[in-house]
């Protein structure tokens, strides 16, 4: 994927974003929540709405239609229930780390189940939109891919070396990677996809 000019370093030259065909963000169908519900983990702690992931799976057809209408109204207007903007933060102590240090804790946010359901649906749409724009070497957070795919690429590169040549890997582990990345560039790239432009502009504060 390409990135536009960095919002952290605006003096840097702007990178050109590849053009994409125009499309619209289709309304959510009645089948999509069922698919998303299967992806939500059962037995997890609920958010401040106190709705467990198992409960929406028991909804009747008419109630599910109401949920779909709520989701589509949110996407169309950019308005969401105020509760969806809140979560319960639970600090989890990392293994073998001292409890006296804040850096030893992993913050986990418990979000409302309906919000998680809608996020899951939107995430699938976004994933489908950008799948063919990602580098083939990238395996994380992609369907039908795992760390084994990356290991196979590395192994194949090593085996392709010519006789007598040495191979050495260069590994980079970035601490707090998502926090340190330029989110402005990510937004600009997502806005370059016409299908995502409307939903991102309307719902970026929540999703």
Read across the widest sheet, the strand sequence of neighbours is 1-2
How far is the first residue's CA from the last residue's CA?
A: 21 Å
Mean pLDDT: 78
**Residue share in helix:** 25-40%
DSSP strand tally: 2
Q: Segments where pLDDT lies below 50 for 5+ residues? A: 19-23, 201-207
Q: Structural class per helix/strand content?
A: mainly alpha
Shape: extended
Provide the gyration radius in Å.
21 Å
Per DSSP, the total helix count is: 7
- Secondary-structure element pattern, one letter each: HHEEHHHHH
Sheet-strand content, in percent, reads 5-15%
Main β-sheet, in a few words? Answer: 2 strands, antiparallel
Characterization of the model:
- The protein is mostly helical and 207 residues long.
- It has a domain of 97 residues.
- Helix content is 39%, strand content 6%.
- It has 7 helices and 2 strands.
- The protein has a two-stranded antiparallel sheet with strand order 1-2.
- Helix 1 crosses helix 3 and helix 2 packs across helix 7.
- 12% of the residues are buried.
- The C terminus is likely disordered.
Output the keywords.
RNA-directed DNA polymerase activity; 207 residues; disordered C terminus; 7 helices; Reverse transcriptase (RNA-dependent DNA polymerase); two-stranded antiparallel sheet; mainly alpha
List the helices and strands and how they pair.
Blueprint: H1 31-39, H2 61-77, E1 88-93, E2 105-110, H3 113-130, H4 147-159, H5 177-180, H6 183-191, H7 194-203
Antiparallel strand pairs: 1-2
Helix pairs in contact: 1-3, 2-7
